[in-house]
Amino acid sequence: MELDQRKLQILRAIVDEYILSANPVGSKALSRGGMKWSSATIRNEMADLETLGYLAQPHTSAGRIPSEKAYRLYVDQMMQRAHLSDEESRLLYGYFREHVRDVDAVLRSTAKALSEITHYTALVMMPDIGVNRLRHLQLIPLTPGKALAVVVTDAGVSQNTVIDVPEDIGPEELDRISKAITARFSDCRMSAVSSKLVRELGGELSVRADFVESLLSALCDSQSRDRRMVELSGTTNMLEYPEYSDVSKAKTFLATVEQKDDMYRMLKKASSMEFTVTIGSENEQEGFQDCSVVTASYRVNGTPVGSFGVIGPTRMDYARVLSILKNVQTNLGVVLQSFLKEE
Amino acid sequence: MELDQRKLQILRAIVDEYILSANPVGSKALSRGGMKWSSATIRNEMADLETLGYLAQPHTSAGRIPSEKAYRLYVDQMMQRAHLSDEESRLLYGYFREHVRDVDAVLRSTAKALSEITHYTALVMMPDIGVNRLRHLQLIPLTPGKALAVVVTDAGVSQNTVIDVPEDIGPEELDRISKAITARFSDCRMSAVSSKLVRELGGELSVRADFVESLLSALCDSQSRDRRMVELSGTTNMLEYPEYSDVSKAKTFLATVEQKDDMYRMLKKASSMEFTVTIGSENEQEGFQDCSVVTASYRVNGTPVGSFGVIGPTRMDYARVLSILKNVQTNLGVVLQSFLKEE
DNA sequence: GATTAGCACTCTGATGAACGGAGTGCTAAA
DNA sequence: TTTAGCACTCCGTTCATCAGAGTGCTAATC
Fold it and tell me: In chain B, what are the domains?
């Protein structure tokens, strides 16, 4: 059965109201609140919407709450784009004027901005280093047998990894290798460096195989091991919502969101899409069955390198969140570009 | 009034029991539970202990709960050192066998170990770079006008900071300066480097004043700006305890513990002491009025460079926590020393 | 035929009384 | 000095009651 205009209108009203109040919405309340039909009519339509799976009733004599199917429809077709107040966009812009020292600081600031403005929990993924181009590699001697590999990419992102080095390679040799690799692979994509490195290092630079292995891990593999690749902010914001007045639910949520590996995977997956909205059980994570995740990707030089997003209860204010994400996406794009002004 | 032997014994029983159950302890329960006096006697003693300020009564006809004064006495004089089971110390030791790549990883692992074994919230402060000796400084060119300063200390700790550089200084010059500073200041305490740097750089190395300023911030000042200096683990463990079954209390706690600046300051202050126990209102933080913080310091080459600790409800199991901290302190000392095997 | 007014019914959440349990303070006896 | 005994207090739970909000259904109305 198709949803006619009236059903859509009623459904939207219910979703809007429920997003605001978190209480089941009844027919009388709706008709009193400016709907042009009587409560009885609305009641009939609500019964239809329930059999169609868009609404649910917590118990016989309560109002209705939207189902996930309803949110899906709402997000895909019904919601009207909110636009931010001047004050909000000024506020948001303010976050990007500070901390422009390095990419990490900007992204941390982004997470803070998102969580404070949306009042939900914000996630920002640090840029995927693999899609960027190498600018500089520097090996710094630590102890005999160990060195610190500092990798800098064209996006201004740096990454340190401690690696094993054959004991017979001295500081000068490390420096020479650093320069050689920097010269040879500068402006190659990080993801491409790895394969070339294996082929060329052994011969040309005459370096031992286990050392190459070590270097490789510094260049590519390390981000998966490093838990700092996701910046979280406003995790406790969720405790404000009645959905989490139960401590055990709150705990489940917090425990899930602090699985940074999972969060990273989730964001990484989302980074190929301009925007994503994942509602309730569409989420893979056990602990997010009552949450929705909205993400946006960010780009450097036209290539998507990461994403950021907001987690809230399924009844989150999707329209507002999407507007904010869009705004942040723009701001972030400008700031990240400014790190590349050299080329 | 002095506390006689019997009062002490009763007080200890009450504290022990309350730590276990979180319920007010009554005289009958105590006498049933193996005390050698009748409930009436115990009752009289309890009344005395209450007027002396060691006990409090939530309401007229409830049992007694220990006051902060009682915990203080308990910690300072009464508690018996717990000893860990073989299994626990083996478990603990296990955490230190993994992740021995770099200092950061070890300390993150420490936080995890602490929170998982104690079931409280664990905090680990990254080592205070100032008290360590410089081993290597490397300036890596980013864009014209910016460079990445990588500082490595003898404790194997590295730190990256983006700094401003006069545009006329090229990559080779940066490399020269790096080598010069490394050669000149190697093995100086980081805190001493700063003052010497100002005096010498201008003349000997002929570098501009604003650049010196920039470098200084990379070498010393930066940790205060960097929020990653504290590793948190098990923040949600606290939600298990009845003290935090109220979401708003949980939120207050979580919000406090995530103020990493404050946590850093707290741990830094504690790092000059072998162990500290701070009970309830002895804490400076607003949000820790119902918590206790137990910390231990860790050393590198005999110098205390940082501290770590556990936060729990005031009725935490102090004896057990202190044993665990002592054990971790030892393990951590051994591991950190292993990073220095060079000298 | 679609809409709506009206009515009987249901379920929740708040309120208050009743009560058993655990604990106390006090007194008098051991 | 210690303890048995007793009257009393307070909490948490249970149960009944009741107002409020909402529903489904039927019959009247447009």
Answer: 5-78 (1.10.10.10), 86-127+229-338 (3.30.450.40), 130-225 (3.30.390.60)
